[in-house]
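Can't paste images in this forum, so I'm doing it all in text. The chain is below; anyone willing to post the predicted structure tokens underneath?
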Amino acid sequence: MRRGGLSGRDGPAAQIVIAGDRTMSLGMVPDLMRAFSSTFSAETRTVKTVDNGLMVELSGGSLPDQASFKIGPSTSADGIATLLDGGAEVALSDRRALTREVRAAGELDLGDLQSRTQEQIIALDGLVFVTHPRNPIRAVSQGDAAVIFAGLITNWSEVGGSNAPINLYVSTADGGATEMFQALVMRPAGLTIQQNAKVLGSDRLVAEAVAADPNGIGYTRFSGTGAARPLAIRGDCGIQTQPSDFAIKTEEYPLTRLLYMYLTNKDISPITNQLITFLGTDLAQATVTSSGFIDQSISSASIDQQGLRLASAMMMASDADAQRELREMMDSLLSAERLSATFRYQTGTPDLNARAQADLDRLAAALSSGRFEGKEVLFLGFTDSIGDAELNRQLSQQRAEEVIEILVTAYPDLANKVRLTAVGYGELSPLACNELDGGRAINRRIEVWVRDYVR
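Text version of the structure:
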């Protein structure tokens, strides 16, 4: 990581500007700053600024220098624009940098925003629809949700529920999940939220209102559902995905969002460099979780916890051969646990995406910890349903083998600790509907499972 100048302990504290997404700026970064400061046994002082931002001052302990971080909450677009204008050292974004933003950075000779050295995923989040616990509706499609909140569907009976009016609850733009909701649900449908929706100041208030209203529906971030009941997301083909931290970590939940930090190729302050390194630590990941977001640590799920996924796979297995292959796959996984590390590819390329590269390091650390010593680690390859089924199976096998090769090349000692096996299943066991690009992207993946090694 690049190094830059920083004033000494006796001079004025360096001021580092962090700009961008409001939810990240106010809901996660201050907690990360306090955790980061604790690694130096330093003091942290946080004050509000006149522009409704925060100033976080770090001093004392074993810190080599005093430092002051100015956090400017705005939008992802504003944060990246401020970064490119030189007004911030770090930008926060709840989406990946857009093509025009990447192009603008290149034209300004500020590097490639989507390169591994300038783009870092620091957490994940998910948008969840919630209803009253006694509402008979258990799942909703993204399309139905859009027309419900646009006021085009006004009675629960129109989506399979009781004959009762639908009461809408939403959060203010700066008080909850509204920007995520607009980006993931309303704008793709070309719709806007009905003006009669009741606007509340936070996800917590939305969840409380819905939990008290048998006819209510709202949306929150994953951590904000409270006593309200989360709804599964139903695809047009019938596949349902329940919101969970595991489904968000694996990016199988359709309303998952990655949260990014961006730098330019210019020098950064040493303290910022140390902060970025800190973000990959266990303490930082635990802080992400306690802040209400989803961390990127490797977690596991048993075959029992994958029940809805396997039921959907059985439903989609349309012929006898597919059903036989699915039963064989399930038999091989009966005593296995799935790890959350799931590898996907850059759109239109055979290259692993930015998150997959970082997950390789996390997976290697987990497999080297001793917890899985003597186990067999299965890398299961899957594709979408476009193209010839046998060619898809071969492609999935090849890609699973490539992930193992990349892993062993970087961490050669792993082969002595665990047995690594690649299996290609092609288009078997889709996690999302193949009719849309988003669903196909979810289905193109390499899963990681661990089981006892039978010699």
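The two ends are 45 Å apart (CA to CA). Residues 1-12 have pLDDT under 50 and may be disordered.
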